[in-house]
Design brief:
257 residues, mainly beta, Jelly Rolls, 2 helices
Length: 257
């Protein structure tokens, strides 16, 4: 595991804006919260605390940190397999064609353009009721650059796993699971091209890890992010199912003692 963000109900009063989102994996890459009138705010009670983006999409609120040359760069740069693990509920996404909402991402720290090294997105040019993924973008991410697309209902709290394994057969290189169950990708869809065989992730030390938005802002969603983690491996289906079962029961850190 590379990073793990428990967004606990016990971290602060509901409705307050946190200063940071702490990483539970040492050495920690804590995220700074950059609020955007007034989101994101704490919401929920144990065991389902989270950060809420309550306003319409396309706001600027986000949690982010530069990855530098530390563990995220060291463990993910050049990798052909990795997993993103999220718990979230979402009911609103960007309607701007070229700027889908970002749920999670590794992004270039470009103050103007949205360049997604690896991200999970919805809205924009992506049809309603679908999630998309960007992979290995080195230039501004366009609506037809997606590495995968899936039909998913996120209107209730769900555990979502995005798994990349570029050594797998083409149709299996980017996979999505919801509550431990595989969601078939929409193959042959315009604008979707899987990664090349054995394609490694290419990061830069200046890149940033961002929750709930793009690095530059303006791409928030409407909903609640309860938890996020990243693994430097492609978790297999038994582990995905076990993790989903545990996170459905509680996405807050276990109480101490």
């Amino acid at each position: 595991m590379v990073v793990r963000y428990f967004i606990n109900a016990s971290d602060g009063a509901a409705g307050s804006v946190p200063e940071k989102v702490p990483d539970a994996v040492t050495p920690a890459l804590d995220l700074d919260v950059a609020p955007g009138s007034p989101d994101p705010r704490r919401e929920g009670v144990f065991p389902h605390g989270g950060l809420a983006w309550s306003q319409p999409p396309n706001g600027d609120g986000r949690a982010l940190a530069a990855i530098g040359s530390g563990k995220v760069f060291g463990q993910l740069n050049g990798k052909q397999a990795l997993t993103v693990e999220l718990v979230l509920r979402a009911q609103g996404f960007s309607a701007a064609v070229a700027h889908p909402s970002r749920l999670f991402g590794l992004h270039a720290s470009d103050a103007v353009n949205r360049i997604d090294r690896f991200s999970l997105v919805a809205g924009g040019s992506i049809p309603s009721g679908r999630l998309g993924a960007y992979w290995n973008q080195q230039t501004p991410s366009e609506e037809d650059d997606r590495a995968g697309q899936w039909a998913v209902d996120l209107s209730t709290r769900q555990v979502v796993h995005l798994v990349v394994e570029t050594s797998a057969p083409e149709v299996e290189r980017v996979r999505l699971y919801v509550n431990g169950s595989h969601v078939p990708g929409e193959a042959g869809v315009a604008g979707v091209t899987p990664p090349s065989a054995n394609e490694p992730l290419s990061l830069q030390a200046s890149d940033a890890l961002v929750l709930g938005n793009a690095f530059v802002g303006g791409a928030s969603f409407q909903g609640v992010l309860h938890y996020a983690a990243v693994y430097d491996e492609a978790l297999d289906e038994p582990r995905l199912a076990a993790h989903a079962c545990a996170l459905l029961a509680s996405d807050d850190a276990p109480p101490e003692g």
